[in-house]
Automatic annotation (TrEMBL):
This is Threonylcarbamoyl-AMP synthase. InterPro entries: DHBP_synth_RibB-like_a/b_dom, Sua5-like_dom, SUA5_domain. Transmembrane segments: none annotated. It holds the Pfam family Sua5_yciO_yrdC. Coiled coil: none annotated. Residues 21-229 form the YrdC-like domain.
């Protein structure tokens, strides 16, 4: 992949297996300082921010150009983060299916996003539209959770004190509706001009599919999107996706 042109954004190249993960030390410091950037996951590259930093979260929303209709996800370090920031996996057991928590243990880390009820520790700024200061803006009660298997993503998270708020970097689409591959150098050039992007971690060009999205916030599993993760353990193979674009 080509290097970004005259980049003002910190651009760090890391081996996909994280064998040189010492390079992530500087990135971790930038995140602690409120910087927002792009990192790899086991699906696509994602914008990330310290979820406890109001300024960082607002910057992420501005980069993504997202309002209340575009909820973010939380990139967690492990199941303890899921317990801390959500109300956990539901206890209900659907006839003939394994309990959700046990299924999650089998699937994670992996290319899934689980929609769960938000916990008390989840910062309010992460559950509402930061573009409005209206107190009447109703906060969401659910949050997406990603426990990524990507070695670089996990190595970075291990250096931090808490999870990261995250949202997939949009992919450009050609005339036939086919997504272009995500090139870190191109993404850097595209977003640094706004003066909001603090860093990019380059692990090479990615053509991965998105995560499989399973909504467990209402109890029984509901398929929102078929992606890289096998949905068959959660829903019937003929269940249709319901996630809007």
């Amino acid at each position: 992949p080509r290097a970004p042109s005259q980049s003002k954004t910190l651009f760090v190249t890391v081996e996909p297996d994280a064998s040189d993960d010492w390079r992530l030390d500087e990135i971790a410091d930038v995140i602690r300082g409120g910087g927002v950037g792009i990192i790899p996951t086991d699906t696509k590259y994602a914008f990330v921010a310290d979820l406890e930093s109001r300024d960082a979260v607002q910057t992420l929303y501005r980069l993504k150009d997202a309002g209340v209709g575009k909820p973010m996800s939380v990139l967690v370090r492990g199941f303890s983060d899921i317990d801390a920031y959500t109300q956990g996996f539901p206890d209900n057991v659907v006839a003939g299916r394994t309990q959700p928590f046990k299924l999650a243990r089998q699937c994670l880390p992996g290319p899934y996003t689980f929609i769960l009820q938000a916990g008390k520790a989840m910062p309010k700024i992460c559950l509402q539209d930061p573009s409005t200061k209206s107190k009447s803006c109703k906060a969401r009660k659910t949050v997406g959770v990603r426990f990524s298997a990507d070695p670089v993503c996990r190595a970075l998270l291990s250096r931090l004190d808490r999870p990261l708020l995250a949202s997939t970097v949009p992919c450009e689409v050609d005339g036939d509706g086919i997504e272009y591959a995500q090139d870190p150098a191109v993404m850097c050039d595209d977003y640094e001009s706004e003066g909001l992007l603090a860093f990019v971690i380059d692990c090479g060009v990615r053509e991965n599919p998105p995560s499989t999205v399973i909504d467990l916030s209402g109890g029984a599993a509901k398929l929102l999107r078929r992606g890289a993760g096998d949905a068959s353990a959660w829903v019937e193979d003929d269940e249709e996706e319901t996630l809007a674009d």
